[in-house]
Amino acid sequence: MSARPGGRSRSRARLRLSVATLVGALALGGAGQSARAAGTPPPPSPSSAEALQKRLDDLVRTPGGPPGAIALMQVGDRTTVHWAGVADTRTGRPPRADEYTRLASVSKAYSGAVALRLVDRHRLGLDDTIGRRLPALPKAWHKVTLRQLLGHTSGLPDFSTAPAFLEILTADPRHRFDSRRLLDFVADRKLLFPPGSRYAYSNSDNIAVALMAEAVTGRPYERLLEQLVYRPLDLRQTVLPQGYRMPRPYLHGYDVTPPAPPEDISEALGASGVWASGGIVATPKDLNAFVRAWAGGRDYLSPEVRNQQRRFIPGAASEPAGPGANAGGLAIFRYTTRCGTVYGHTGNFPGYTQLAAATADGKRSLTFTINTQTSKTLKPELLTKVRAVQEDFVCALLRR
After folding, report:
1. What's the pLDDT at 378?
2. Residue 348 in contact with residue 373, Cβ under 8 Å?
3. pLDDT in tens, 258-272
4. 337-355: pLDDT as tens digits
5. Using CA atoms, how far apart are residues 302 and 307, in angstroms rounded to an integer?
6. How far apart are CA 368 and CA 384, in angstroms?
7. Is the separation of the CB atoms in 196 and 149 below 8 Å?
8. Does residue 29 surpass a pLDDT of 90?
9. pLDDT digit string (tens) for 190-229?
10. CB count in 10 Å sphere of residue 231
11. Structure pTM?
């Protein structure tokens, strides 16, 4: 916190703004938009490592932009890491691929992985309903299926927009919620629309997915992550914490609000209030290994389940929107860029914005992390620039 007069009160005000922005950014989905205007000729793709590096350098020099950025690209067994700026403004050290970072809504891909692995094992069905698996939840929700939850077509009201939830979080950003009771904040509300009739990105969906997985296995969601995701993919630097502390070492996340200096908010909020929808913490290296399997590699899902996963809704965007034109599947998104298509997920959380994507065979992958938050409601101009840089990296990835 700042030591200047009035600095503490200004920091608390900025933190309250970050909390309010968090729930707005996570709750609001929307149609994917191209990173360039319709009818505008596509810009030339960077043709060298130097050009990609310049794009990252320019990004961290953007007013209000991130103090640091790191992009990890893997083609086959060859991995290349580009970075710019700093992981910690206090020490000036650079970002590294083995530092922990908050994955934000990329965590939804992990709850999707748990669910679809259980579908492959015939423990869950995509047409299983809330009424069958979670009968204690409101009767008005009982017809919602697992498929609709994973595809954000359920109509469940988003707990993260509930006034009672916001009141608690604003008063105490580090409040430890009972993650398995987050849906209680909207239990008095009906569905927003008939299940399956439209797309609406909602944090409630993946909370219900995790609860379904627990109901059919009798095991905690955290244990299911270990058994069905971490262990099969050898993920040794991936965790789902309940508190606000980050594992060490970590990429520091910042609120960047010029003319004030960047404020470290890495540990300003706890993870219990997002849980299966946004709480996972991992290194870019581990995230890369996950997205390669999730997008299509290592026979992680059966061909039958993979086919269901890839039934996309055109224009259904992740939050924030990823590069190019977005389309939504079951806990995965398709990003169609000027150079080709990749599959993955994005996320944003106070201090962090993420993209993880890979080709359909999992042989080419990209993770792209910046240590400040941006979304369509928070610094939309920065998001436009971030998406353009992400698209350049996708182009470089596909042309290698």
Report:
1. 95
2. yes
3. 999 999 999 999 999
4. 999 999 999 999 999 999 9
5. 9
6. 15
7. no
8. no
9. 999 999 999 999 999 999 999 999 999 999 999 999 999 9
10. 11
11. 0.91
2-13: burial string, b at 16+ Cβ within 10 Å, e else: eeeeeeeebbee
Contact 233, 298 (CB under 8 A): yes
Task: Check whether 312 has a pLDDT greater than 50.
Answer: yes
Confidence of residue 400 (pLDDT cuts 50, 70, 90): confident
Q: Distance between CA 215 and CA 46 in Å, rounded?
A: 49
> Which of 399, 393, 398, 397 shows the shortest CA–CA distance to 54?
393
C-beta of residue 91 within 8 angstroms of C-beta of residue 367: no
- For residue 347 the two structure tokens come to 């996320």
Three-state secondary structure of the chain = CCCCCCHHHHHHHHHHHHHHHHHHHHHCCCECCCCCCCCCCCCCCCCCHHHHHHHHHHHHCCCCCCCEEEEEEEECCEEEEEEEECCCCCCCCCCCCCCEEECHHHHHHHHHHHHHHHHHCCCCCCCCEHHHHCCCCCHHHCCCEHHHHHCCCCCCCCHHHCHHHHHHHHHCCCCCCCHHHHHHHHCCCCCCCCCCCCCCCCHHHHHHHHHHHHHHHCCCHHHHHHHHHHCCCCCCCEECCCCCCCCCCECCCEECCCCCCCEECCCCCCCCCCHHHCCCEECHHHHHHHHHHHHCCCCCCCHHHHHHHCCCEECECCCCCCCCEEEECCCCEEEEECCEEEEEEEEEECCEEEEEEECCCCCEEEEEEECECCCCCCCHHHHHHHHHHHHHHHHHHHCC
Q: Which of 273, 130, 154 is nearest to 213 (CA)?
A: 130
249 contact partners, CB below 8 Å, separation of at least 6: 96, 98, 99, 100
Across the range 313-317, mean pLDDT stands at: 97
Quickly count: other Cβ atoms within 10 Å of residue 324's Cβ. 25
